[in-house]
## 1
Amino acid sequence: MNQIKLKRIGSQIAKELSDICANEAHDSLLKIINITGVEVTNDLGLAKIYFTTMEDISHKSIEKNLNDDTAGYLRTKIADRIELRHTPKLRFIYDNSISYGNKIEKIINEIHESNK
């Protein structure tokens, strides 16, 4: 499938998931996550949903709960909102790029402080 179309579908899924988590979800777990990106496979069989959270909860346990308990519910909601022949299976993956960036920034600040 065309890469531009895949990116557009991924962007639309991310937008809809963010809206569902912020406005419709009753599950407190969905209220604390932020969707950072979506990658869709060429056959639209799988959508990798990247997320972060500001809570001090283990990201592995959040990831497990999202994949085991919530993915089916969200897939149904996505199917209602986006017209696709086949709604992809959702797999949630913790996006550690923000925490990694914060760690690098902290190291740089420490280096600058030690050089003063």
Note: The chain is about 60% helix and 20% strand.
## 2
Amino acid sequence: MKFMITWQMKPGRLHEALELFSAIPAEVLTQEPGPAIRLIGRWHDLVRGKGVVICESDDAAAVSQWCLTWNTMLDFEIGIVHDDAETQAIGRARRQAG
């Protein structure tokens, strides 16, 4: 499954989180989510203190655990997302079933 995780910085925590995040070596960032999660990409809107992550995992608990490592500084929303091909397949299956 692919997950879209949106995050919002908790009030007053931006500089602390940025300092912590920027200290993580680049080669470690790709491994930071853990072995059960494949990081597809992260985008940060620092001015507004929010961002989005797209990742893939068969383990929803691992995704939750990863978010919990940052939840003292960030609030999260997690949803399941589909690419174009997956969305078309879902649409075709619904059409055939209905």
Note: The chain has a mean pLDDT of 95.
